[in-house]
Amino acid sequence: MKLNTDIIRNIILFINDDKTSLFSCLLINKAWCSQTIDILWSKPFRLIYSCASQFDDQSVCRCSFMTKRRQAATLIKTYFSFLILEYEQELIDNCHIKKEQILIPKFDYINYLRYIDIHEMDLSIIDFYIFNEISFNENLQDSNNNNNNNNNNEDEERIIPENFFNFFQEIIDDTTNDSQSTLSIIKIIKYLASRTLMVDLRNTFSEYQIISEILLKFIIGKCKNLKRLSLDINHIYQKSLYNPCKDFQRYPTALSFYKRSIMNNPEYKAIDIYLSIPKYVNARNCLSNIKELICTTRRNISDFLFALSKYVRNLDKLEINIDFPMETNYSNFYLSREHNLLKFEVTNLIKLIRNQKRLSHLILYNCPVDFFLIMKELKESQAENLKILSLIGIKFDNNNNILYYLKFLTSLQKFQLVNCTIIQNNYFEYLTEKLFLPNLIMIDLNNSFISYQFLQCLLQICSSDLEYLDIGKKFSSSLIEFNFNPIQFISTNFSNIKFLRCGLISFENNDLITLLSSSCNIIESIILDNNYDNDENNFAKCLSRLSEINFINLNYFGIRGNFKFSEFTLSHFLINNIRNNRALKLFTLEFTNNIWFNDDYLKEILKCLDDGFVCYKLIICAYNKINPDLLIKARKKIKIVQYVDRSRS
Questions:
Q1: What is the torsional sign of CA 458, 445, 338, 251?
Q2: Closest to 570 measured CA to CA, from 621, 604, 536, 598
Q3: Domain tally for the chain?
Q4: Would you tell me how many other CB atoms lie within 10 Å of the CB of residue 143?
Q5: Residues 6+ apart with CB under 8 A from 254
Q6: InterPro entries under this entry (predicted)?
Q7: What pLDDT is attached to residue 94?
Q8: The pLDDT of residue 348
Q9: Is residue 338 part of a domain?
Q10: Which one of 239, 264, 289 terminates a domain?
Q11: Strand partners, 388
């Protein structure tokens, strides 16, 4: 049966992150190829460094280094084929390359490009070098074995001069001179055409950034539909938490070196290549329609932001890091200088925000200066557009201000504070009188130090349809000091909670039961924390009561901290004949940092699995050493078992 192209397209869009399936679809027939080719080549660097393992399997990676190197070499070679075609006749006339060496692409791959992550692109270029070097050495060895007397290559003239990259950098810096720019590209192509010379390039000082600049300038000049540009430093090493490819972190790139205090590092100046992107020839045509910009390097990005603010108008998501680039123990003179530089960064970030037509998602890191000027700009230019506001690592001097500016963001749907600190303040009644955010259905206070007053204020101003709530685990005042019980408040005012993560103290157990009983039909994820040093929560009675609740959609249940319960109570929770569905069917079951969890608990879980309990993933981080034989049995019954032994810590 022949499928309609619209149906094929929907199938392709559904699997757009599965590179193996995309390659398979590409080879079915012309109809499938035409619907797949642009999706496959929209983010080629990302797909190369996506793990071949299942997305949710955090502990296993089955990727092959050589496979990725071969893919990267093919990708870079394909892009260079466009560059070679640009100067085809001149290269042939000057005998730099033979006509039969020129690869003619079947599709306009550059125009398919939608996503560029600089770190991934640099990894591809490094792998391009390594693959060519390995191939050259293998061919050379084969040649020597077959004909030891053939030494024709020994007399080949060394074309790359020793000082080539010294004067080459001066040539490519002058982008205003077309003849010089052409000369630099032709010279690079000349070296890429010879595998012998590739080895010389491989061993040359910071050579890959030079190729990266040549390729990036060419792509920026030709691509007209770029949607995402990422100069990411915060997530380079965090991505493996969700996509565990062991291949992704093999090499440092220019973005990995972000402190101004390491200027003697050869990679240090290379990042300026990327911060100059908005000034490249034809960059306006390429970047004017980008929807997502990520720039989390700790280098000064003031000029980068200012250049973008001149013509970028359609950003939907903006992720920016404003932070000191050196340690705080430096002299006051340097800190004062850096403080002023940060002020310029904030000023130009504000200009970029002001010029956006519809900015809906802002993620801001650190920002130790002039934070509330940014909030003021959001109030004035994006109040009706902003739907997601994420603030990470920010220390608030006065939480009155953040509440004041929040009330203008009437379209806000998600408010996130991660690793933030908000001091206690006693002037809340005045602030909350006219403060209401009717669309706020997600509150995430992960790992933030906040006062109970501030938490109460947030819960009072959000929508009654609140679905996602992480109230964190660290507070700057205790319940005894302030008469507010967050679990009780949540159970009384919200009935649509789908995700709940909260710290839990012993006397809140009954309130938790009330809350989960009212939300049992819709709640999907429950994560309970107990990180209070003076509260060893006797959780057995509460867990026993929870076992009577008929959870319909629960797929994640996590217990973090020293909750005290027996293995039999746990077994009773996982399988209980009183419930309509009897045995729980969970995607993930988690026990983290619990001093009570031992072999007996794991044995009960295995018995429950034989009796109808379903679990796709089990996470154990225990202070008692777990028997390896039990873990082997668990891995036979559960697809993913992650175990961290903390018995020695």
A1: negative
A2: 604
A3: 2
A4: 13
A5: 118, 122, 209, 267, 270, 271, 273, 274
A6: LRR_dom_sf (IPR032675)
A7: 65
A8: 95
A9: no
A10: 264
A11: 361, 414
Question: Of 264, 294, 320, which marks where a domain is finished?
Answer: 264
pLDDT of amino acid 134: 57
Question: Is residue 125 situated within a structural domain?
Answer: yes
At 536 the pLDDT is 54
Same domain, 10 and 112: no
Q: In whole angstroms, give the CA distance from residue 136 to residue 196.
A: 7
Structural tokens at position 540: 């057995």
* Distance between CA atoms of residues 419 and 92, nearest Å: 58
Could you give the C-alpha distances from 355 to 147, 351, 504, 541, in angstroms and in order?
Answer: 67, 6, 44, 57
Asked whether residue 20 falls in the same domain as residue 132, the answer is: no
Tokens of 342: 């940060």
Please answer whether residues 206 and 166 qualify as being in contact, where contact means their C-beta atoms are separated by less than 8 angstroms. Answer: no
- Indicate if 185 and 59 belong to the same structural domain: yes
Q: Are residues 137 and 174 in the same domain?
A: yes
Does residue 549 fall inside a structural domain? no
Burial class (CB in 10 A: 0-12, 13-18, 19+), 391: buried
Three-class SS of residue 290?
A: coil
Kindly report the pTM of this predicted structure: 0.81
CB burial class (10 A; 0-12, 13-18, 19+) of residue 205? Answer: exposed
The SS3 assignment for 47 reads helix
Mean pLDDT by 10 residues, the chain (649 residues): 81 82 85 87 84 51 74 84 76 66 79 87 79 56 52 37 37 39 46 48 52 81 88 58 49 52 46 78 88 87 92 94 62 64 92 95 92 93 94 76 84 91 59 76 87 82 90 55 76 89 79 86 89 61 87 91 87 82 88 88 92 90 89 90 79
Phi then psi for residue 632, to 5 deg, are: -65, -45
Q: What's the CA gap between 508 and 553, in Å, rounded?
A: 24
For residue 174, is it within any domain? yes
Distance of CA 32 to the CA centre of its chain: 30
Give Cα separations from 555 to 511, 529, 552, 591 (angstroms): 22, 18, 9, 15
pLDDT at 332: 52
- Domain residues for 253? 43-142+159-264
- pLDDT digit string (tens) for 9-40? 888 888 887 777 888 888 888 888 888 888 88
Report the 10 Å Cβ neighbour count for 643: 18
Same domain for 214 and 117? yes
Q: Is 171 found in the same domain as 36? A: no
Q: What is the pLDDT of residue 503?
A: 80
Query: What is the pLDDT, as a whole number, of residue 156?
Result: 36
Q: Distance between CA 77 and CA 79 in Å, rounded?
A: 5
CB 272 within 8 A of CB 283: no
Is the Cα torsion angle 281, 285, 286, 290 positive or negative in sign?
Answer: positive
- Whether residue 168 is found in the same domain as residue 226: yes
